[in-house]
Amino acid sequence: MKKNLKIFIGIVLILIIVTGMIFFTNNSAKSDENTLVIGMDDSFPPMGFRNDNNEIVGFDIDYANEVCKELGMKLEIQTISWAAKEQELDSGNIDCIWNGFGKTQEREEAMTLSKPYIKGEMIFLVNKDSNFETQESLQGKTIGIQTGSSGQKDLESSDFGKGLKEIVQYSDYLSALMDLETGNIDGVFISTINANYLKKANGKDFKQIKSEGISTAQGMVIAYKKGNTELRDKIQEVTDKLIENGKMQEISQKWFEADLIAKE
Fold first, then answer.
1. Which of 99, 118, 157, 229 could form a disulfide with 220 if both were Cys (CB 3.0 to 4.6 A apart)?
2. Are 144 and 113 a contacting pair, CB within 8 Å?
């Protein structure tokens, strides 16, 4: 009798555990479906970075929040290593890369991309009192770049880049600019969007030099896992609405003091 009771209690406990696991799994799935996990580098101002209160802020954060508000979704920000962004996306750890991600042909073949939402151009920043005036004057010099950026690949593969003394990689552009200021490097290859914000925010007065024949980027986009057109189209539809009602332009004015929104 006692043996049968023990068996019965054991079966009941197993059923309770299994039922609990099913309930947890189902509820987790529902929660995941209503949560948008975006992957970003939290040291990429003004697109996404930590402010003095250690809060992640920036243009892309405001943009993503507006999209989630329209979709009735919860936004979850996942900080990632920019050098491992593609692996984070492929593994499913994040739903998309949303952080000033430059559109290139190589990335378009490997991932599903949104339409460009901001357009900028790549430039060189040099110290104001330097003798550098043109791209050619930087030939044979040392240039800093952010690791894993489209700019890094463009610079390394270009004829100009192959003629440089050294291309130094940095985890973020602010570190590169600090090295530039102290003379450890001769210039930084950076987008006008990042350059203008960093110069203003840090009170720096670097000189800009136009780049030619290097960049292949076609604007900033959101990147999704290859084939995930459903999520892309859903967010694109909201983005188009935010452009139409002027919200995107409002966010652009807040962070760039200009309307840099790509309207295609």
1. 118
2. no
3-class secondary structure per residue, 67-135: HHHHHCCEEEEEECCHHHHHHHHHCCCCCEEEEEEECCHHHHHHCEECCCCECCCEEEEECCCCCCCCC
d(CA 75, CA 60): 12
Q: Can you read off the two tokens belonging to residue 255?
A: 């962070």
Overall size of the chain counted in residues:
264
Q: Give the separation between CA 141 and CA 189, rounded to whole angstroms.
A: 12
Q: Which among 103, 183, 113 has a CA at the least distance from the CA of 151?
A: 103
- pLDDT over threshold 90, residue 33: no
In this predicted structure, what is the pLDDT of residue 12? 45
Nearest to 118 by CA among 197, 212, 42: 197
Is the Cβ–Cβ distance between 152 and 84 less than 8 Å? no
235: Cβ–Cβ under 8 A, 6 or more apart, which residues?
Answer: 67, 71, 96, 114, 222
H or E stretch covering 248: helix 247-256
Locate tokens 């552009």: which residue?
173
Contact (CB, 8 A) for 12 and 65: no
Query: The pTM is what?
Result: 0.72
- Sorted by sequence, the CB contacts under 8 Å of residue 33 that are 6+ apart come out as none
CA 231 vs. chain centroid, Å, equals 17
User: Residue 154 and residue 161: Cα distance in Å, rounded?
Assistant: 8
Gap between the Cα atoms of 130 and 54, Å rounded = 35
- Which residue segments constitute the domains of the chain, with CATH numbers given? 34-119+221-256 (3.40.190.10), 122-210 (3.40.190.10)
